[in-house]
Amino acid sequence: MSKENRLVVKDNSLIDASFNLSLVEQRLMLLAIVEARELDKLTPDTPIEVKATAYRDQYKTDKSEAYKQLADASKQLFNWQVSYIDRYADTDAVTVSRWVNEVTYVNDKGMVVMYLNRNVISMISRLEANFTQYLLEQVSDFKSKYSIRLYELLIKYRDIENSKKYSIDELRSLLGLENDEYTRTAVFKRDVLDKAVKEINEKADIQIKYDQFKEGRAISHILFKLSKKKE
Which of 7-16, 72-81, 196-205 has the highest mean pLDDT? Predict the structure, then answer.
């Protein structure tokens, strides 16, 4: 499969999940999802191979650093959790899950082997409705982890051209911000949101802008507007 045709597909529950992955960790997970969906049978025991050469070519990284980045990212990925809206006994619930169950480093072959958690598997395969898909190349040049997350959150709205109205707190959570990060809204907008919007507008296939809504004097909600770039 060529680099230009690698398709990322996620259930919207995973798109709208809360997690805090670094840029490299997100890149690794996206490559793993692409590789996993090419397999005929996908279970928690299925090895997902991600080669340093594929990572280097996809993200245009330095050859000598590619494997080290993969190894470090997969090690951290093993420790991270993802929380998402789920259903249990016909009731809304929140599930907390790991991304991977196990990671193996194969130094001689320059690759890592990942074994995905069953919940992640269910949200990237056998999808019939309520899912989002986009070409991996659209986010490959992003240098900010927030740009990837914002692109994923918004791309499902590309056909209706308006996102839902996000509260500032919800948007912070979805972008993976900790409670003590960018606590002032003005700083959050300047250093996170505006930079992500700028990078998406420069490098991806959509153009976005946003409207702000206030409660009293404070900005409380953000609504994004999208348009497709001409070919």
Answer: 196-205
Closest to 112 in 3D by CA, of 65, 66, 74? 74
Contact 150, 20 (CB under 8 A): no
pTM for this entry: 0.90
**Degrees to nearest 5, angle at CA 68 with 64 and 72:** 160
Distance CA 121, CA 25 (A): 17
SS3 per residue for 20-54:
CCCHHHHHHHHHHHHHHHCCCCCCCCCCEEEEHHH
CA distance 122 to 145: 24
- Percent of the chain topping pLDDT 70: 97
Structural tokens at position 72: 């470090």
The alpha helices in 142-220, defined as continuous H runs, are 145-155, 168-174, 185-188, 194-203
Strand pairing of 111-116 and 48-51?
A: antiparallel
DSSP annotation string for 99-131: SEEEEEEEGGGTEEEEEE-HHHHHTTSS--SSE
pLDDT, tens digit, 9 for 90 and up, residues 121-157: 999 986 767 899 999 999 999 999 999 999 999 999 9
Would you say 128 and 6 are in contact if contact means Cβ atoms under 8 Å apart? no
177/21 Cα distance (integer angstroms): 10
CA gap 116, 193 in Å, rounded: 30
